[in-house]
Write a structure and sequence with these properties.
Blueprint lengths: L5 H7 L16 E15 L2 E3 L11 E7 L5 E4 L16 H13 L3 H5 L12 E7 L4 H17 L5 E8 L7 H5 L9 E9 L3 H9 L16 E12 L7 H6 L4 H5 L6 E10 L9 H12 L24 E4 L7 H12 L9 E3 H5 L6 H12 L6 E5 L6 E9 H4 L10 E3 L1
Parallel strand pairs: 5-6, 5-7, 9-14, 10-11, 10-12
Antiparallel strand pairs: 1-2, 1-8, 1-9, 3-4, 7-8, 9-13, 12-13
Length: about 425
């Protein structure tokens, strides 16, 4: 009787299947809660960041740019831009936007210092979203340049993807930064650069009849800026974790150092539609009505209430940031609104305007507004109302709150909407 070899026995033995490791479920993020962690903006006046607020500079005359009546224009330029321009870029607006982006990228490492490393020692994931009004082949060219440049840098993050989006507005911020159906990173870098200091920009301002010239000094002066904002997406809470439980826990210093308590909460904004500012000077009344509907009324606690008075109260800002005060009627309109609704705010002492630091930079203005709002409230428990008033019949609004003040309210269920 033959003896079975060891090799035959091995062949007959069925291999033991390895246990399958369950795939981790993708993290779902709350589209209604977005946190601004840090921001750095380059303007003609200087760098705007948590620890930097430059003094406004005067515009300079540019003999190469001519107004509609043949006059030279006063413009705001960001100094010392990167001069390297790829040969494939020939569009004037694209060249200037890429030079601004390249110059800002020198600030990227400083901004990413706010991103903590993963607990397992790996690099945290980051999505990059570039807001631009460039279109077609020109946009694709700059997009490729941006993606390749980021890939060549040694960064303390894993850049998961680089995307472009249409120009961002205050009331569409949450929708445009929402991850959608695809897997998303917890961290988002929103980039934007804009300039009107070129012939197409001057032509656009002139066509809109808002260009400031020698003969018409009230209006927008061509300017430029580049901005980068670091956001953190908030995971959706499971049914087992209730907001009141999270708020009842005292955050540890470890969490604070990791950025869990740093930054500002941005609640979804809305856009107020109203009659033309040029035809009717009642925009302040329409804004007041829309704010009353959207934010909590500024009212003190009842005399015998057991609840402590909260400061700042949700919906009652401590500061205001606008895109421009240079267009006709804007200063009076906002001053009237503040006197009627927020008398504790002085437009000069507690406000900031984008065009005061950089002229009119174009569609990147909303990004700069958010960066200014963050810089205004650094180190304070405060909130900022951000208004875009450059349009004639619409006013986008968003509220930015420091995390400490936002913890006082867990009942917010709003979403971006149109008020009329």
């Amino acid at each position: 009787m033959s003896k079975t070899s060891i090799y035959d026995q091995l062949y007959q033995r069925r291999p033991t299947p390895e246990p399958k490791v369950p795939e981790a479920a993708p993290v779902l993020y709350d589209p209604q809660r977005l946190y601004l962690i840090d921001a750095i903006t380059l303007t003609p006046s200087g760098r705007v960041a948590k620890d930097d607020w430059p003094e406004p500079v005067a515009p300079e005359r540019d003999v190469s740019l001519i107004g509609p009546h043949g006059e030279t224009l006063l413009v705001y330029r960001v100094p010392e831009l990167v001069d390297q321009v790829p040969v494939q870029l020939t569009d004037a607006a694209a060249i200037k936007e890429w030079r601004l982006l390249q110059t800002w990228l020198d600030e990227l490492i400083a901004l990413l210092l706010s991103v903590p490393g993963n607990e397992d020692g790996g690099l945290p994931d980051l999505d990059v979203i570039w807001s631009t009004d460039l279109t077609g082949h020109v946009r694709d060219q700059v997009h490729t340049l941006l993606r390749d440049t980021l890939s060549a840098l040694r960064l303390p993050v894993n850049v998961q993807r680089v995307e472009s989006c249409r120009p961002l507005a205050l009331h569409t911020l949450h929708q445009q930064l929402a991850p959608g159906d695809q897997p998303a990173a917890p961290w988002v870098l929103l980039l934007g650069a804009g300039s009107c200091v070129h012939a197409p920009g001057v032509s656009a301002l002139s066509h809109q009849q808002c260009l400031a010239t020698t003969t018409q000094p009230v209006g927008l002066r061509p300017g430029e800026a580049a901005s980068g904002l670091l956001f953190k997406r908030q995971p959706l809470l499971s049914e087992k974790i209730r907001p009141e439980k999270l708020l009842s826990e005292t955050p540890s210093s470890e969490h604070t150092d990791r950025g869990d308590e740093a930054g500002w909460l941005l609640r979804p904004g809305f856009v107020c539609r109203h009659p033309s500012r040029d035809r009717q000077r009642r925009a302040a009344d329409h804004l007041d009505q829309a704010l009353s509907e959207h934010f909590a009324e500024h009212s003190s606690q009842p005399e015998h209430s057991s609840q402590p008075e909260q400061s700042p109260d949700h919906g009652v800002p401590d500061f205001i940031v606008v895109d421009t005060l240079s267009l006709p009627g804007r200063s009076v309109e906002l001053a009237t609104l503040l006197m009627k609704r927020y008398p504790h705010i002085d437009l000069i002492e507690h406000g900031a305007a984008v065009d005061a630091l950089c002229g009119w930079p174009g569609v990147v203005a909303p990004l700069i507004q958010l960066a200014l709002a963050a810089a205004l409230t650094e180190g304070a428990e405060a909130s900022v109302a951000v208004f875009s008033v450059n349009q004639d019949e619409t006013t986008p609004v968003i509220m930015l709150e420091t995390r400490a003040s936002a913890h006082s309210d867990t009942s917010y269920q709003g979403e971006g909407r149109v008020a009329s």
